[in-house]
Design a protein that fits this description.
Elements (H helix, E strand, L loop, with lengths): L2 E4 L4 H12 L4 E4 L11 H6 L7 E4 L2 E4 L1 H11 L12 H35 L5 H22 L12 H4 L2 H9 L4 H5 L2 H11 L2 H9 L5
Parallel strand pairs: 1-2
Antiparallel strand pairs: 1-3, 3-4
The structure holds glutathione sulfonic acid.
Protein name: glutathione transferase
Enzyme class: transferase
Main location: cytoplasm
Amino acid sequence: MVVKVYGPAYASPKRVLVCLIEKQVEFETVDVDLFKGEHKEPEFLKLQPFGVLPVIQDGDYTLYESRAIIRYYAEKYRDQGTELLGKTIEERGLVEQWVEVEAYNFQPPIYKLVENILFAPILGVPSDAKAVQESDEKIAKVLDIYEERLSKTKYLAGDFFSLADLSHLAFGHYLVNQTGRGNLVRERKHVSAWWDDISNRPSWKKVLDQYKYPV
Ligand SMILES: N[C@@H](CCC(=O)N[C@@H](CS(=O)(=O)O)C(=O)NCC(=O)O)C(=O)O
């Protein structure tokens, strides 16, 4: 049964797409237009009651929350494609730590920048300059911690690429390429080298090539 991924144009679903490609898992996509409110339609809410993207269907198995989905597939297909969870329980602990850091420290301020710089003009709502400034400050502090970590190890969980790094691609792309804040990465030598390494993976280039961001 081919995995169905809903909402491939958007960032969090792209976290799932790049994981499925790394794990060599076949999938198909179902477009959902956020700007038309399709994610709030009753049919969609039956799949994802919180009304956000992504959700996947794998036969009669349905799962939402992008990080839960990538953990599921990284484990389910442990023996194929790229190893994404580390080889020991200690490595796994560090993978999980940095997936959580991405969820609670990296993505939220970038999400604020995306809302206020990219989406606000499209939706015709005012941009919150204070929220943008606060986000810039938060991201700078977070990336200082990343710079220190990546001065010691090539990747976030150690000297191996993992879900921890993969999970950063979707919003890291916004930060570096679409919010005018690429300097926050480029000014930090080890973060910049890490970003160039992970964002040049064939899996991510394939996602960008086949599933364009909405803005
Ligand atoms: N924690 C969720 C967040 C999902 C989420 O916020 N998705 C956004 C799209 S994106 O920001 O990830 O591109 C969405 O559906 N937003 C629609 C809405 O908030 O109404 C996940 O990781 O799956």
